[in-house]
Amino acid sequence: MGRALGVACAVFAVGAIALAGQTVTVAAETAKPVITGARVAGDGERTRFVLDVDTQIEPAISGLAAPYRLIIDLPEVSFEIPDDAGETGRGLVADWRFGLFARGKSRIVMDLTGPVTVDKTFFLPAVDDQPARLVVDLVKSTPEGFAAFVESSRARKSADEKKAAKTDKLRTPVDSNKPVIVLDPGHGGIDDGATGVDGTLEKAIVLEFAKLLKAKLDESGLYTVHLTRDDDRFIPLGRRVDIGHELAADLFVSIHADSVRWGRKLARGSTVYTLSDKASDQLAENLAESENMSDVIAGVDLHDEPEEVTDILLDLARRETRTFSVYFAKTLVSELKTAVRLINNPHRSAGFRVLKAHDVPSVLLELGYLSNEHDEKLLVSAEWRERMALAVSEAIHGFFRPRLARQQEMPSQ
Fold first, then answer.
1. CA angle centred on 134, ends 155 and 113, rounded to 5°
2. Which of 25, 71, 112, 371 yields a CA-CA distance of 20 to 30 A from 94?
3. What are the residue boundaries of the MurNAc-LAA domain, all occurrences included (predicted)?
4. CA 236 to CA 354: how far, in whole Å?
5. Do 260 and 398 have their domain in common?
6. What is the pLDDT of residues 130-161, one digit of tens each?
7. Gyration radius of the chain's alpha carbons
């Protein structure tokens, strides 16, 4: 799993704007703190984590257990540190990763070797040629001590964080006459997803493809199309499901390009997955297990995740939704056969959390597998992505053709 953000921030050319006799500098409004260095020092009893930064920033530190993790939330920053920073740790820190977590928020997640206590956190201003530094000191603790720290950090969640979560919801008006499609580029931000043989990041590939597919569907004028993310940010799995539900989506397509092994061979070729309680095969089970770890990788607190509701009406809705999901999956496989290489048995199933909306037909599309060098070359090919996007578009047209035909036959009001 990649550690760094992996996608460079856009550079904006900004100048001074003269307005009503005053000069407004856009750069001052858009500047973000810059982290220029990061390191871990210490041993199994006491460990220090240091960030070099160009301006003072206030961290919010929390903990998560099973496995032991330390979460450092920061205002949105620019990480100007090596991509492989954090792949190895020291002392109480096994490894760590970093990236954009949500709009206006960056995050560092540390995998710990065991329970810790945050001994102290402090900021050192710049002196002479030494940069300013944010320092976090950790000391070895007990499971009971760490559990108390986790509970106290949950209790410190601010009202501002709750408001931020609410404003992140999609509230775009929906045209009730058009089918609503939600395209879900997997991973993002702090969660790179898979990394290819030549270093290709899954989160970047799937976002680029989702934007291309959206553009093609928008050209038809037949659908209202949304992306769960349109930039390099992390979206929790449950939030992705909620987006489809809130937008009353008629189809949800989660897009991935994972890295998995299948027996002694590397998996290769496009695959379509639907939800099932029992995995169709070992490859599907392994992939679902890997994908369902996305929230753990990004340091999401699963403590308050609601339990599944047992209700006969919900159960009926789920069954109907799964029927439509399987129907679209078969339609998609049929189109893909004529355009790209497919894996053997291209329609598979497993317990993917991102496909669990009870009222939205949902599939997970593996464009290919970055663990295979041949697939990776195709995934970065503009010509291949064009063929793939056209095939997926045709499958969507086929899925909605009966509904669109009925709408065209209806007399205009």
1. 65
2. 371
3. 241-397
4. 9
5. yes
6. 999 999 999 999 999 999 999 998 887 655 55
7. 23
